[in-house]
Design brief:
Layout: H1 3-21, E1 30-31, H2 32-39, H3 43-56, E2 59-63, E3 66-69, H4 71-101, E4 104-111, E5 114-121, E6 136-138, H5 143-149, H6 154-162, H7 177-190, E7 193-196, E8 204-211, E9 217-225, H8 234-256
Antiparallel strand pairs: 1-3, 2-3, 4-5, 4-9, 5-6, 7-8, 8-9
Helix pairs in contact: 2-3, 4-8
Length: about 260
């Protein structure tokens, strides 16, 4: 959709969200007249938007032309709050993993084509990548990102890769779409993602997804190793099982709390 039709569609979405944002603890219910006064829209337009939102379940009509947030809006807000709680709830597990491995442990969320770091327990290694809570990395190049992409529906993962720049960060970064898709299939089959110096020279990582009760990835955790490996297949044989065990424990916690 392009041109005026697209602009109109975007404007309609913005107006609908503006109406939903009017409701608060101080304004738990609003009449069409009140919504019109607060938004500057005419009452007929407000009423059409309110009826559309009602049909979709985001508003309820409690009296004639008076509305309050519907169950879908409540559910959406609940999910948003729960997803923000996950890093805090997972922190004891992350600390235990960091203590057990003496490596840096991270948790990330997928935000479009990027991974956002939401929790981090640093090791005492002198060499480490300068990352902090709030840092972003391309999902296609990071173990955290790939762990989540691999467990998304294939169409969703492809859409994110299509939106990604796929530029090499180091000489080892996989940027060929066919190789990336093959790598995602391998990750899904074994349950974890490996990264060998694709983000920074000398830095390796192993990650596993945090899955909701519906088996959708809602986050991922990884171990970041900024040192030479001390034994062959250390990432696969030693660290990956520990990351998987921790990820499964956090996934179970997320399922109990209905975090999606």
């Amino acid at each position: 959709m392009k041109g005026p039709a697209a602009a109109q569609g975007i404007q309609s979405v913005a107006r609908a969200l503006t109406i939903l944002e009017l409701f608060s603890d101080r304004r738990p219910a609003l009449s069409v007249s009140e919504i019109a006064a607060l938004t500057g829209l005419n009452r007929a337009t407000c009423y059409r938007f309110c009826q559309t939102l009602r049909q979709l379940g985001y508003l309820e009509e409690i009296h004639e032309r008076r509305f309050r947030p519907g169950l879908k809006a409540v559910s959406l807000a609940h999910s948003a709050l729960r997803s923000r709680e996950l890093p805090e709830l997972a922190m004891p597990y992350l600390r235990e993993l960091a203590s057990d491995t003496t490596e840096t442990v991270n948790m990330g969320l997928l935000d479009g084509p990027e991974v956002v770091y939401v929790a981090r327990v640093q090791s005492e290694h002198l060499i480490s990548l300068r990352l902090y809570v709030g840092s972003r990395l391309p999902a296609y190049a990071s173990s955290l990102g790939r762990a989540m992409l691999a467990f998304l529906p294939e169409r969703d993962a492809e859409e994110i890769l299509d939106r990604s720049s796929l530029e090499p960060i180091t000489e080892k970064t996989i940027v060929d779409p066919r190789r990336l898709k093959a790598e995602l299939r391998r990750i899904r089959a074994r349950g974890y993602a490996l990264n060998d110096q694709e983000i920074a020279p000398g830095l390796r990582g192993v990650a596993a997804p945090i899955l909701s009760a519906s088996q959708r990835p809602i986050a991922a955790i990884n171990i970041s190793v900024p040192r030479p490996l001390t034994e062959p297949n250390e990432m696969e044989n030693v660290l990956a099982p520990k990351v998987l065990e921790t990820a499964r424990a956090i996934s179970e916690l997320a399922g109990q709390l209905s975090i999606e």
